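Can you please make up a whole protein chain along with its backbone structure tokens because I've never seen that pairing?
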Amino acid sequence: EESGDDETEKFGKELASLADIYINDAFGSWQPHASTIEPTKHLPSYAGFLMQKEIENLDRVLNPERPLLAVVAGSKFDTKIGPLTALLNKADYLVLGGVIYNAYLAAKYGFKIKGIEEDDVKAAENFLKQTGKYPEKIVELPYIIESDILEEKIEKKYRVHNIYTTDKGNNFNYILDISPKSFATAAVRDIFNNSKTIFVNAVMGFTPNFAEGTIALNTLINENKEAAKLFGGGDTLQDFKTFLPEIYNKALQDDKYYFFTGGGTILKAIEAGSPFGLEPIKAILNCTLTEKRAGYERRNGEDRRKEQKPVKFDRRRGGDRRSGIDRRQSNKN
């Protein structure tokens, strides 16, 4: 249940009655629910080891070593407009893929692309107005793959187009992938090879039949041995593992790579500019225990805990080591 009503509060108390401390190690569960909010009102509460690691690596996106390159794709533009706007302001370069890139092309070049909804085009038009302040940040991928059908990739039913040599207002069938030729261009390679931090939440094509763009993207990223490479999103990680298993398995042992467990959480935190605005994390930080909550609550007529001093967060130091969360990480300029 989502946190907020009386039934949720009651259920939260029942959950809390089963334990003496509460540890949240589910970074992917960013929405407020009874299991992530209510126990913090009744128990000493801490971030688990995975939660701490996720926050530390998120800080590498929010306070990156530059240049920061962000690669974002998705099936809807309007649902990612918040994170995209935040990344436009934060990143040095932004690469788009999937329906998001198709909507961008439709908005900028007037292309009519089958399957792209008007709402996404309008969202892309609004996004384009913001990019006017940062014209150099959007890295356009010039070669796109058009297909007559969605179901499979059949020779003579798909073709590669260069967006710069295609007439504005051109009508397309389905644009289902980015051609590997895009990632072979000198301008694109230079940006990928010289970035110091690379954030990826992207499947570039309509996989599994149109996977060439995703393969080319992840192969090029892997060539940069110096950059921090941070990936988030279930589809992003699954397709990396499926199509490039050897690189993926090596990446699991490579300190330069980090795979987030919660793609939606990452985007929400990027949009907010900090993980500490997410309700479950905020609940841990706000867990300043009182004698009533820490020392004398009873269960079955017995003290749940002996007398304890309240656990307080030392906000002057920007963090609390007892909570497991160090807020100083995200206070960098």
